[in-house]
Each structure stands twice: as C-alpha cells, then as structure tokens.
Amino acid sequence: MTITNTTRMTLKAIQSGHTQIKGVVFDMDGTLCKPQTWMFGQMRSALGLDKGIDLLTYVHSLPEKEQEEAQEILRKIERKAMVEMIPQPGLNQLMDYLDVKGIPKAICTRNFPVPVDHLLTSFLPEHTIGPIITRDFMPTKPHPAGILHIAEQWGISAKNIIMVGDSIDDMEAGDKAGAATILIESDVNDHIKDVLQTDVVVQRLDEIIFCIENGFDTKN
C-alpha cells in the first residue's frame, strides 16, 4: 500500500507502538461508502430545517405521531441514496487486513438499518461486522454511548479502539469515548482536519493499515 503525501503530512500523532489497536468502529455514509451530501440537503428541505439544526435532534423533539412521519421522510431519502452507494477506495483491503489480524469491526451510524444491511450484503458479504449501531440506539452521535456500548460488547477499553468517520459528529463521539479518531478526507470536510478531536487524516481506507502497523498517539 502506498501512503499519499497528504496522509504523511496529516499523520501528526504517529509515534511507533504507543496505541495497541484492538477494535475499529466505522461510520457508514461518507466512510464505508462515498459521500452523498445531496441526501442531507434533501432531508433539510423536506423537513423545512435550516442547516444549523441537527436533523435527528429535531425529529426526536416532535410528538410521537409527527416523529414517525418525519422518520419516514428521512428513510425514503436514505433508501434512494442506498441504491446509489459506491464503496470507498481501499474498503476490502482494510477489511481483509483486519480479519487477518483478528481485529473486530463494528458500525456506528446515524442511518437506519436498511441501508446498513444493503452495504454489508453488497460490498462486504464475506466479512463479519458487529455490533451494528444505528439511530435506533439512543443517544446517537456525537454522544459516545454507541462507541462505549461496542467497547463493552467486545470486552475491551475504548482507548484501544479507532473511530473512523467523515464528520465532526464522528470525531466528537470517538474523542468523548476516549478512542483514537481517524477522519476520511473529502471535498466537504476540510474544516474538520485540524480540530482537536481529529487525530489522523487519511484519503483512503487502506491507509489506516499504516496507522495500525506503526502505532500512533492521540492528541489528548
């Protein structure tokens, strides 16, 4: 595997052998599959929300009947995005490596279960991934509860976990849980690269192999 120049410059925390990685938690949208940023614009438009309002926080604040109606609006858009999924470069290379090393893999996403199942059956049918945390698990990211639940299920400390994602919610959730954080760089998340919650930035998923092989310290 070739590490890109961008990755070399952003691996600020690399220190050989400091963090033993025993598990990796992945976001889904924009992490395991390529970003579909149009999806969130359609969701906000359908619900009449400004950009500064968190979608799921708003939906969960609604009365029960209205909440289910809003959830179905989101699910309809997510189903549309589901059929257009494209896997991230390096996805299977990283998963194969983690299998060889015996490192467990999990998903912590704010999506609903159907698109997650579609991704697993379409792109990762030979890999075991679990637990799977969707937005049915409360509270959702950026709260660390999902990651801490995964760590408990695995029987390991969150300090030995990497949270891989593409959003500030992913970075904050991982950081609050005490995990290391890796940001998958895209053309819409440049502003997250230098925040304190982001430890390492990569352009491809298989670049994470370099991080695990060489070890790295978190910023905190």
Protein architecture, described:
- The protein is an alpha/beta fold and 220 residues long.
- The chain has two domains: 5-34 and 87-214, HAD superfamily/HAD-like (Rossmann fold), CATH 3.40.50.1000; 38-82, no CATH class.
- Helices cover 41% and strands 10% of the residues.
- The chain contains nine helices and six strands; from the N terminus they run αβααααβαβαβαββα.
- The protein has helices at 5-10, 38-47, 55-60, 64-82, 91-101, 113-123, 145-154, 168-177, 208-214, and strands at residues 23-26, 105-108, 132-133, 161-165, 180-184, 200-202.
- A six-stranded parallel β-sheet has the order 3-2-1-4-5-6.
- Helix 8 (168-177) links the parallel strand 4 (161-165) and strand 5 (180-184).
- Helix 2 (38-47) runs antiparallel to helix 4 (64-82) and helix 4 (64-82) runs parallel beside helix 6.
- The radius of gyration is 17 Å and the shape is globular.
- The two termini are 29 Å apart.
CATH architecture of the largest domain: 3-Layer(aba) Sandwich
Number of domains: 2
Strand content: 5-15%
Task: Give the rounded overall mean pLDDT.
Answer: 86
Number of helices: 9
Tell me the number of strands: 6
Write down the overall geometry. globular
Class inferred from helices and paired strands: alpha/beta
CATH topology of the largest domain: Rossmann fold
| pLDDT < 50 stretches | 1-17
Look at the structure and give the CATH class of the largest domain. Answer: Alpha Beta
Strand order of the largest sheet: 3-2-1-4-5-6
Describe the largest sheet: 6 strands, parallel
Tell me the Rg in angstroms.
17 Å
